[in-house]
Amino acid sequence: MAAADPPPSPPVSFGIIGCARIAHKVSRAMLLSPNSTIVAIGCRSAEKAAAFAKDNGFPASAKTYGSYDAVLEDPDVDALYIPLPTSLHLHWAVLAAKKKKHVLLDKPVALNVGELDEILAACESSGVQYMDATMWMHHPRTAEMKAFLSDERRFGQLKAVQSCFTFAADKYFLENDIRVKPDLDALGALGDAGWYCVGSILWAADFDLPKSVLALRGTVFNSAGVILACSASLHWEEGKVATFYCSFEANLATDVTVFGTKGTLRFHDFIIPFEEREALFSTAEKSGFTEPLTGWEGKPSQHTVITELPQEALMVTEFSRLVGSIKFEGAKPEKKWPSLSRKTQLVLDAVKASIEKGYETVEIVS
């Protein structure tokens, strides 16, 4: 007789601290994921926590607390999701790690790489898994696009990347949202939207850090000195270049174009797909003009990727798999995700420094 398959591991138990808007989406992902569940949520009031749990369909057994500390002290919590303002990440992520809670941290993950290094050191010391909540990285489309970029026969060598994330914030957002408050999210649009742009560029470049960064003139600040819009160029020693633009002042756009010597990749909804269960991208290979310059040959072709679970649920599933392998199989934390966060933060820091230095070129030192 064939040996029976081992029983599946129990689901990873999540606690959540904070009732931010993004927590609605990620808590839904935890409920959709096959290997996770929600056991606790803490907000600044017990009433708010209870209302959040009810409104978002939490299990009846989920505990609701009127403080963040209570979630960290709960022995049933394996992993902590932290959707708090960036200025609070250092304190709560380090404390979570010290309490042996695995850390799923919303982006931007820190105000600078020094803070992030403290978070990562605490996670490594406690042997807990760290991951930032950049959801698009977990969509199956991302893997399919990477396969095209990695095909030297079709794409060739990477030469350039262009990325943008913009949305037109309303008056209330520009006056009240945490992302425009210097004491809460001091990086503003650079941290919120620029995180995605920089991440997409590094992804296209196989997370090879650029040699230098140059912020482009025209940065827009609010009256408190928080960035509302900015752009920058990234430069590699071998001649690759990239540019990005992020803004709270322009119509919604989330576009990435990757240019190779033989092919081109484009996708227009890289942060949140136009449709939850499918995502598109286009590729072109060996394109040129027809004679007598009246059309194209090597026209772009469109590809559709279907997924049963939305990308945020796939993110939770992967994070929970890593946590489960540590908890139930004695595995070590996966180091890929801390490394990717740190490289993204290094570039953000360099862009900010370039702006502050009057748009001087800033070398990146890892």
UniProtKB/TrEMBL annotation:
InterPro entries: Gfo/Idh/MocA-like_OxRdtase_N (IPR000683), GFO_IDH_MocA-like_dom (IPR055170), NAD(P)-bd_dom_sf (IPR036291)
Enzyme Commission designation: 1.1.1.179
Keyword terms: Oxidoreductase
GO molecular function: D-xylose 1-dehydrogenase (NADP+) activity; nucleotide binding
Domain GFO/IDH/MocA-like oxidoreductase: from-to ranges: 151-266
Residue intervals of the Gfo/Idh/MocA-like oxidoreductase N-terminal domain: 13-131
Family affiliation: Belongs to the Gfo/Idh/MocA family.
Record's protein name: Dimeric dihydrodiol dehydrogenase
